[in-house]
Write a structure and sequence with these properties.
Elements: E1 11-12, E2 19-20, E3 28-32, E4 35-39, H1 41-46, H2 48-52
Antiparallel strand pairs: 1-2, 3-4
């Protein structure tokens, strides 16, 4: 099942390209245009206001 809590395969941050084997608790998951994207802790922290404002990542 494709679930934000248990994604398949290695993860890649949609912003900076950082990778992780398993989903770290500090990463953020966002659904944009029906597509699930993951953002590492650093990218999520740097853009938290845009994420909370539900702006697409193309805006930040």
């Amino acid at each position: 099942m494709n679930d934000a809590r248990d994604p398949e395969g290695p993860l890649v941050c949609a912003r900076c390209g950082k990778t992780a084997e398993k989903l770290p608790l500090t990463w953020t998951c966002s659904v944009e245009n029906g597509r699930r994207s993951y953002f590492c802790e650093e990218c999520a922290r740097a853009n938290i206001r845009s994420i909370e404002g539900r702006l697409d990542s193309s805006w930040w």
